[in-house]
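Lay summary. Proteins are chains of building blocks that fold into shapes, and those shapes determine what they do. In this project we predict the shape from the chain. Here is one chain we studied, written as its sequence of building blocks.
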Amino acid sequence: MSVTDTVSLEIFLSQLISSGVAPGVVAAVCSAEGEVFSWVGGSREVDPSHLPMKRETLFDLASLTKVVSVTTLTLLLHERGVLDLNDRISKFFPDSGNFSSVRIVDILSHTAGFIAEERLWDILEAPEEVLDYILHTEPLGSPGTYVTYSCFGFIILGFLLEKVLGISLAEASNNSVFKPLKMEHTLFCPLEQHPQPPAGYAATERDEKTGSMLRGVVHDENARFLGGIAGNAGCFSTIDDLLKFTQMLLSQGSTPEGRQFLSPESIGLFSRALHSGAEEVRSIGYKIIPLATGNPEIGKCYPYGHTGFTGTSIWIDPIQQVGAILLSNRVHPSRVERRLIAKREEFYRLASALVR
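And here is the predicted shape, written in a compact code that computers can read:
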């Protein structure tokens, strides 16, 4: 790691704030051995108050919930023989409507045929109606035929995990993922435990119904309709907890104490392309994100990652052994700001240079 590489990354991050891409940012880069870079800047809130961003600030992870919680929990249950990735969801939901032939692996790879999402809170009267409604929507196509990123699929998978385990997704994630990895500040519905955390929450947008600024309340409207606990969104976390998660991925599923949390075989699934030729190439749970041009080959190992609508992302390169985490509140005070989407890959490139 050179001084030039570090300065380049610091300049890039500071420009995200100065150019208005996001009010505040917390970022970190790590190897399997630990953190090699971190940076904090900007504000966790600018409306109605100006409050500084801090390293310990809690972020709404949005769709990072899909991998930090749901994908990880699913692979743990697969390893324990509780379920199989090739199980059809009809095994768990006898009335699976139009999706009886969908397998768990189809949901994890976003090839199940579910539409992306709809505003459920505008369509349904109660959360209890969600499962039946989604399973009776019209499929986009046969399972496994093409990629359509779907929050609906992961909402169904969240329901499936709750049915299998007999407890809420929040409790299951805490017991099986967060506690074992010592992710002490990662949780659903954080206001119940931390009404006023010392470093605060990264604010998102104002609630359409109440007009109040969302802090510690999930930004995703469907997850909010489901009480803040859903398979597509709802987790809150900090940079330090996500560093622990990322280091576990880089260490082939091993914790710093040497305990095997996930098997190397499961970790390997995250970096292997399941198909080629699509606009988005998916693995189990993650998006394949190579930093070079060219269409990924099926089965080959590639960098992978995931993003969250609120402005969060993680990226893991198992070949170069580097992980990068970018947490921002780019939707604050409004989601109309979208420039971060095009800038994430540059962050990954600059981060990878630190461990060459």
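What the prediction tells us: The radius of gyration is 19 Å.
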